């Protein structure tokens, strides 16, 4: 049955989707939620009775659904099912690659045939379905305009992010799926305007996969080690798919969104917290020369100019965060002003914090002119006393604090040889230490049992990061170090405060966003023009794209997302220059194949 959704009921109306493995479990729920929100849905599976039952369930709700029998391992089945879907609905906008196979096996008991079977379903099946779907999803395809492509969502896992016992086969398979996601996001985003993203579920209750892989005793033990102390629901994964499929996620490309409550980054707590406190005191009492100095550092982008943002139609319900109170640092301009505005437009009471009174006053006046509940507090995130005062004032004003957005930042261009340690430290003090300081002082308000909150429900921290540190960026050694620290803070607090205080902690990593002080300062117009030409989606992001990501995380749709940093950059961070034109690649491949065949050594058994 449909339940109250954070999204508008028509958020994907007019779109057609095909979901492989959609007969049961997570993928059935994805199909159901897409259909409940306006899409026409086809599901594909190997077993006719499962398909028929699933389609009947969807149609009993008055939803538009059809089922096609097929095996993703067979290219002819993939081609037939995709063609049938387009024939039935007249178009294809969304492909969800969810078909998967798994079982428990130690490597010494797993034959190469068994290993290959899982890769054939998960990895090769994902590629095969995507390959055959290209003609329908690309811009100019059936029912599509000349500049608008579709979306592929690949269902992955978190097992391969570290290592998992008895899962060498599915770990390798899902690592391949994640790589496919990144590669297609780059190549097909660039050439065909197709966005490609992934979702990596953690353990999800009530699914065939969990029952097969984790008996009740194991699932109970797993819950006890999870930061949020609970299994996820199939709906959590479906809400992630809706976010990616809706206009809210239109600038997300090449990202695999982890929805696991923070489990993948969890480690056993070997020392009780009280013992840690005693140990810390003992270390502190040692002579200074025997102690190691430590420091934390932050990074953020400074907003200088303010722009009034007009409300546009949102994919979310207008009351999706009603009753919540938020504090946004750096909220006087740019990305963080838009985050504050969208939270307020969707029902939240919002406080913004910044160093300059005139910027704050102008931003608050703009929000109030829309009839929104907003207040501004002057303060510097580098000063602990300012952090404590602003947080206390926010709670005094609204009676509670549910959401802290750490967005204050500073940046500039500088080569390492021209950047003094003082300049380097300044950025870390704002971004990294500022993020930690605000979070540290907010704990008492955000933890379960805090002001205005029940004994088992904590709040949310969103840390604004960047993508510069994921590879390496010229003249950005200071910001890259600072944001790497922010990402690490996100993971650490998600683990520790998720476990102890039911506080979710997530990040958002924006790419280049048009109309922001950060972009105008760091990239002149000529650079921006060149940048657009190398981006998979050929466009800059909008401030609204980042605000929609924040709304997703703050709403019930993102309630099982913890410890994740959501990259919203159109796929730019994973982009590489295309050194060889596509036509030359085809010709080169044929030449190489002919040479190999002529040599008589290593003759390929299949053609490209």
TrEMBL record:
Its EC number is 1.3.1.124. One of its GO terms (cellular component) is peroxisome. It catalyses: a (2E,4E)-dienoyl-CoA + NADPH + H(+) = a 4,5-saturated-(3E)-enoyl-CoA + NADP(+); a (2E,4Z)-dienoyl-CoA + NADPH + H(+) = a 4,5-saturated-(3E)-enoyl-CoA + NADP(+). GO terms for molecular function: 2,4-dienoyl-CoA reductase (NADPH) activity. Pfam families: adh_short_C2. One of its GO terms (biological process) is fatty acid catabolic process. SUPFAM superfamilies: NAD(P)-binding Rossmann-fold domains (SSF51735). It is an enzyme of class 1 (oxidoreductase). PANTHER family: 2,4-DIENOYL-COA REDUCTASE [(3E)-ENOYL-COA-PRODUCING], PEROXISOMAL 2,4-DIENOYL-COA REDUCTASE. This is 2,4-dienoyl-CoA reductase [(3E)-enoyl-CoA-producing]. It comes from Lolium multiflorum.
């Amino acid at each position: 049955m449909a339940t109250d959704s954070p999204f508008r009921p028509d958020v994907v109306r007019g779109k057609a989707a095909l979901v492989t493995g959609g007969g049961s479990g997570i993928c059935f729920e994805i199909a159901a939620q897409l259909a409940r929100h306006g899409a026409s849905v086809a599901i594909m599976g190997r077993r006719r009775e499962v398909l028929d039952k699933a389609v009947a369930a969807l149609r009993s709700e008055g939803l538009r659904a059809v089922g096609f029998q097929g095996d993703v391992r067979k290219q002819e089945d993939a081609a037939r099912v995709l063609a049938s879907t387009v024939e039935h609905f007249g178009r294809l906008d969304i492909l969800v690659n969810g078909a998967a196979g798994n079982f428990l096996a130690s490597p010494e008991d797993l034959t190469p045939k068994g290993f290959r079977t899982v890769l054939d379903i998960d990895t090769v099946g994902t590629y095969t379905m995507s390959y055959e779907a290209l003609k329908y999803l690309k811009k100019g395809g059936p029912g599509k305009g000349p500049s608008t492509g579709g979306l592929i969502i690949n269902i992955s896992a978190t097992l391969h992010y570290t290592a998992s016992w008895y899962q060498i086969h599915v770990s390798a398979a899902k690592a391949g799926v994640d790589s496919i996601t990144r590669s297609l996001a780059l190549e097909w985003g660039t050439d065909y305007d197709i966005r490609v993203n992934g979702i990596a579920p953690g353990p999800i209750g009530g699914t065939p996969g969990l029952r097969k892989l984790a008996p009740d005793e194991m699932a109970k033990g797993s819950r006890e080690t999870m930061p949020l102390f609970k299994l996820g629901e199939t709906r959590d994964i479906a809400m992630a798919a809706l976010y990616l499929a809706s206009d809210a996620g239109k600038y997300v490309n090449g990202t695999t969104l982890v929805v696991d409550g923070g489990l993948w980054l969890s480690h056993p707590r070997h020392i009780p917290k009280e013992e840690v406190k005693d140990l810390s005191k003992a270390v502190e009492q040692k002579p200074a020369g025997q102690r190691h100095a430590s420091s934390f550092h932050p990074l953020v982008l400074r907003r200088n100019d303010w722009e009034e943002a007009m409300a546009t139609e949102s994919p979310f319900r207008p009351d999706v965060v009603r009753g919540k109170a938020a504090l946004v640092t750096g909220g006087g301009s740019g990305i963080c002003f838009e985050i504050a505005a969208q939270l307020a437009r969707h029902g939240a009471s919002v406080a913004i914090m910044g160093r300059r009174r005139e910027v704050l006053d102008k931003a608050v006046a703009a929000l109030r002119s829309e009839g929104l509940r907003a207040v501004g507090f002057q303060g510097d995130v580098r000063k602990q006393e300012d952090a404590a005062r602003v947080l206390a004032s926010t709670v005094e004003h609204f009676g509670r604090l549910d959401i802290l957005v750490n967005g204050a930042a500073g940046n500039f261009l500088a080569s390492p040889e021209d950047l003094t340690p003082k300049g380097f430290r300044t950025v870390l003090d704002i971004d990294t230490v500022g993020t930690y300081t605000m979070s540290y002082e907010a704990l008492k308000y955000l933890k379960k049992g805090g002001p205005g909150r029940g004994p088992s429900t904590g709040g949310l921290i969103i840390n604004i990061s960047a993508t510069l540190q994921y590879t390496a960026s010229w003249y950005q050694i200071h910001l890259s170090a600072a944001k790497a620290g922010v990402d690490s803070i996100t993971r650490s607090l998600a683990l520790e405060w998720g476990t102890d205080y039911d506080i979710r902690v997530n990040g958002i990593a924006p790419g280049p966003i048009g109309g922001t002080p950060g972009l105008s300062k760091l990239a002149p117009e000529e650079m921006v023009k060149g940048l657009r030409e190398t981006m998979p989606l050929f466009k800059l992001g909008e401030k609204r794209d980042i605000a929609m990501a924040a709304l997703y995380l703050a709403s019930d749709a993102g309630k099982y997302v913890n410890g994740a940093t959501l990259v919203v950059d159109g796929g730019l961070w994973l982009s590489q220059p295309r050194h060889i034109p596509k036509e030359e690649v085809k010709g080169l491949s044929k030449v190489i194949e002919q040479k190999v065949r002529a040599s008589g050594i290593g003759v390929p058994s299949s053609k490209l």
